[in-house]
Automatic annotation (TrEMBL):
Protein name as catalogued: GntR family transcriptional regulator
PROSITE patterns for this protein: HTH_GNTR (PS50949)
Keyword Hydrolase: no
Annotated HTH gntR-type domain residues: 8-75
CDD domains per the UniProt record, alphabetical: WHTH_GntR
UniProt xrefs under PANTHER family: GLUCONATE OPERON TRANSCRIPTIONAL REPRESSOR, TRANSCRIPTIONAL REGULATOR, GNTR FAMILY
Pfam families attached to this UniProt entry: FCD, GntR
InterPro entries: GntR_C, TF_FadR/GntR_C, Tscrpt_reg_HTH_GntR, WH-like_DNA-bd_sf, WH_DNA-bd_sf
Superkingdom assignment: Bacteria
Alphabetically ordered keywords of this record: DNA-binding, Transcription, Transcription regulation
Annotated signal sequence range: none
Length: 219
């Protein structure tokens, strides 16, 4: 990777790069994050690396210990449950509004993202998770409440980070495809109640899938 330039841009780019490494599982839970190694990998000095690790610590993705340095934080069931409880409040808020006010081009954007998802090999979970966030972000970012939208994005990013090593069963994967299509159909019909029912089922199914795997892994 080429070296970054300006300090602010450098720190932002480095933050995204390290977070991507964690959310895709290339940096695993419990793995030590050596400042010098990260600096060499991303072509920067150690100062922005330390700052980024402090930011990631504040967001709950990294732990910094006095004698061990920084390590990738291990997710726990309580963290996942807390995230989903907030998402269960936010998601219906966004989709019911979207069903009422979405313009045809907004729905077409979602259809295009869904088409790209369905063209993916089912084993490519890294690409799937990125497109899945893009699919739902196409709803949230249109909303007038940017504070709520920003909170949603942070929570969904946290789910990707904490669930980096979790699998998606073939049955659940197919169910996700069906639930996405149902959401699109509800939006086309401008049926807010139908959209809300679809997203409630969608979020609950994702929580069940992640919880079962975390229990099986003893997390």
């Amino acid at each position: 990777m080429s070296a970054f330039s300006k300090s602010d841009d450098q720190e932002a780019s480095l933050y995204e790069a390290v977070l991507d490494e964690i959310s895709t599982g290339r940096l695993e839970a419990g793995q030590r994050l050596k400042v010098s190694e990260l600096a060499n990998r991303f072509g920067v000095s150690t100062s922005p690396v330390r700052e980024v690790l402090r930011l990631l610590q504040g967001e709950g993705f990294v732990e910094i210990h006095p004698n061990r340095g920084a390590v990738v934080k291990q997710a726990d069931a309580n963290t996942i449950q807390n995230i989903f409880e907030v998402l269960q409040l936010l998601e219906p808020y966004f989709v019911s509004w979207f069903a009422d006010y979405a313009q045809p081009e907004m729905i077409e954007e979602m259809e295009d993202i869904q088409r790209r998802i369905e063209e993916l090999p089912t084993a490519d979970l890294i690409a799937f998770r990125k497109l899945d966030i893009e699919f739902h972000w196409a709803i949230c970012r249109q909303h007038y409440n940017h504070v709520a939208a920003d909170l949603w994005r942070k929570l969904r990013t946290a789910l990707n980070v904490h669930g980096a090593k979790l699998r998606i069963s073939p049955v659940r994967y197919q169910t996700i495809m069906e639930e996405h299509r149902e959401l699109i159909a509800a939006f086309k019909a401008h049926d807010a109640a139908r959209a809300e029912a679809a997203i409630n089922k969608h979020v609950a199914g994702s929580f069940t899938q992640m919880s079962q795997q975390m229990r099986a892994l003893g997390i």
